[in-house]
Design goal:
alpha+beta, four-stranded antiparallel beta sheet, 8 helices, 13 strands, about 30% helix
């Protein structure tokens, strides 16, 4: 069920439908909503960038979660000029996924680091979905975009990190990435070098992992045919993350 401003209602036609002028956040709700304040701050700040004259109230989201007894779900909030839409879905990731890790491949589509849309969680998301589906049809769990300069950017639905000589690396935001909520948590809680990296840096690394708000932290078991094992540093980050979201 979709809810408009927290109630069952009809969606109002606006530039969100006609031109994709909209934003969304997907929030992990376990016994509590994880990183709720960070998600609300990001969507409200992005509203200013897209000149959307609406904003999400923290207490409204909390009340919606409590009223509808939402637990162990993904809560999506979509905002356009005339609508704030709440919807929920089941969490698709299973324990087997985390044991196995994700296989990833490269997209032939380049991320445009000069576009403001890559820096907000816009409803203009169809390219990400189409590219991820292409990867799935080839047997991969996620795809990775390079930017127009050939540097690693991000996944269709994730941020990417790699480990070399026990150090953590991730593309800097200016490479054309959405600064993910879990990405920022990793950067804030561990020593991470943010820079410009080529695909060769990934392939020559010791281990790789990806992050997003629903998957949390997922190790990568394969990229472009090269196999990777887990790593003590990844396990350390995962355990720290699990403790944080309890």
């Amino acid at each position: 069920m979709d809810y408009i401003d927290g109630k069952e209602d009809r969606i109002k036609l606006d530039k969100g439908l006609f031109f994709g002028k909209g934003l969304f956040e997907t929030i992990l709700v376990k016994e509590r909503a994880i990183f709720l304040e960070e998600h609300i701050n990001r969507i409200n700040n992005s509203c200013k960038i897209l000149n959307i004259e609406k904003y999400v109230e923290y207490n409204d989201v909390l009340n919606f979660i409590e009223k509808n007894n939402i637990k162990n779900k993904a809560l999506k909030i979509t905002i356009t000029d005339k609508n704030i839409i709440y919807s929920t879905r089941d969490i698709q990731y299973k324990s087997e996924d985390y044991k196995r890790g994700f296989s990833i491949c490269l997209s032939s589509v380049l991320r445009n680091s000069t576009s403001m849309l890559v820096y907000v969680k816009s409803t203009c998301y169809i390219e990400n979905i189409m590219e991820k589906n292409k990867g799935k049809n080839l047997g991969f769990d996620e795809i990775i975009f390079l930017n127009e300069k050939g540097y690693i950017a991000e996944g269709a639905t994730s941020n990417i990190f790699f480990i070399k000589n026990n150090k953590i690396f991730t593309p800097k935001v200016k490479c054309g990435i959405l600064n993910g909520i879990v990405r920022q948590w990793v950067v804030d809680n561990f020593i991470v070098e943010e820079g410009e990296y080529k695909i060769e840096d990934l392939l020559m690394s010791d281990a790789i992992f990806i992050t997003n708000s629903i998957v949390g932290i997922m190790k990568v078991c394969e990229i472009e045919g090269k196999k990777f094992n887990s790593h003590d540093k990844i396990e350390e980050i995962i355990n720290c993350y699990k403790t944080y979201i309890k």
